[in-house]
Amino acid sequence: MADENRQGVSSRRQFLRGGLRGAGLLGLGALVGLSTRRARAERTVWQIDPNKCVACGNCATYCVLTPSATKCVHAYAMCGYCDLCTGFLAPGFTERDTAAENQLCPAGAIRRTFIEDPYYQYTIDESLCIGCGKCVKGCNDFGNGSLFLQVRHDRCVNCNECAIAAACPADAFRRVPAGRAYLLKDKIQRKDPDR
Description:
The chain is of the alpha+beta class. It folds into two domains: 1-41; 44-180, no CATH class. The chain is built from four helices and six strands, in the order αβαβββαβαβ. The protein has helices at residues 2-40, 58-62, 134-142, 163-167; strands at residues 44-48, 70-74, 110-116, 119-124, 147-151, 173-177. The longest helix is centred in the N-terminal third of the chain and has 39 residues, at 2-40. The radius of gyration is 29 Å and the shape is elongated.
């Protein structure tokens, strides 16, 4: 009887050891599988959908960086050279020139360069841009919508909970794959959808 008890105890011990080894291997396999899946998952970054953005000004005030990682960009394919840019000139401007009182941008980030009479080229100096969206709003309201906001990923710290995204009234912020990080405006936005 004692030999049977010893064999029973020995069998149970072998069973438990085998079960623990199997559980350990199963856990290790799950850990390796999870880390492989994470490594394969594409990294995402924050970006603004230019078709949803209402240029509310929150990008300038809610970003954790000063100035904001959000910058105005220009879709040159949508807007050629012109004399009157409603993203550059403030409403009620007195002259079509570069005087500060005539400019819409509070930081002077839009450059107006003479090309030939009567044409000028407008470019954004991103180092001066604070992401306020005033030029974007002016361009969308009275122009063709060629100015829009983008999160610049060389500046963005890619916060897990972006303060701008939480404050965006148009829900225009979203996570996009890092390989296709910039959402571009590729056509003129019309105010009248029937046109």
